[in-house]
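Q: Convert this sequence to structure tokens.
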Amino acid sequence: MEAWFLREWQRNSPWQLLLRPLSWLFQLLVSIRRFAFRRGLLASTRLSVPVLVVGNITVGGSGKTPLVLALALRLREAGYRPGIITRGYRPRSAAGARPPPITHVLADAGAAPVSDEAALLAARSEVPVYAGADRPAVAQALLAAHPQVNVILSDDGLQHYALHRDLEICVIDGERGLGNGALLPAGPLRETSQRLREVDALVVNGAAGTPVGDAAGAPTFAMQLGNESFISLHDGRALAPADWRRACAGRRIAMVAGTGNPGRFFSHLARLGIDGTTHAFADHHPYTAADLAGIDAEVIVMTEKDAVKCGRFADQRLWFMRVDAILPETFDQFVLAHLSHLQADLKA
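A:
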């Protein structure tokens, strides 16, 4: 159903016209909420360190998490000490208990009750990662436990106005763009395209030249996902794409993705010359061994976000593709220049 909606939101159709009144109501509620924060009717918490938000205005995967990972690495290389906060769509336990409101996500959190994005960020970023729905409380808990942190990266959260942000970076899916331009539920937008006029920067993931609506004035940077490697979930062995193809030659391959945009992963593999059956699961799918046991293949390759949830039952069939966000040097310069000014202002 989710994949069907993502496809349908790329066009206008008769059934979407019936949903337009609900989209107008959604837009009204969004506008009222934003007005309340702007007028101070709802409080927005300002932290003692700069906050960089990486988000989007559409539902579905756009590449936010790889960008946050890239930012964490670049900031560390520049001498900063970043920490990451994330919403974390965390399931109840098998006994029905709710997870704690704030979780310090550890590097081996694959089996813990945190989101797949949170587990991936903790596994790869080498910086403190905290998850929870209350962004200000989560950020304050991180800073209290890790006072050395001097900049907060928020994975998603463009619409979480309760946390004051000093730099907003909006990620646009270069393949899907803004879809049919309608708000939920008739389209994929969380906010109108006019919101793009207010962000500090746009990052277009893939497909250069994608129209981004009302983003006049915001600097736009191209991002690609690359530096691919294939890693065995069974023994940690890593192979370059060409070596992995040779190792899998003549074997039945299945491609598995439980993300907001599984088609992006399948297309990426196709561009690398990898062919096989495709198996799309819902975003944040809580994998079990039974999900993969029924797949008729000698090799199963999945996204890294999926893999963090499958380590406890991995066998020799399971591999994942690791990718990095590739960004121009001008993007690094843009972020570091803004961050330098922000820290100077906080010290003033």
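The longest helix spans residues 14-38.
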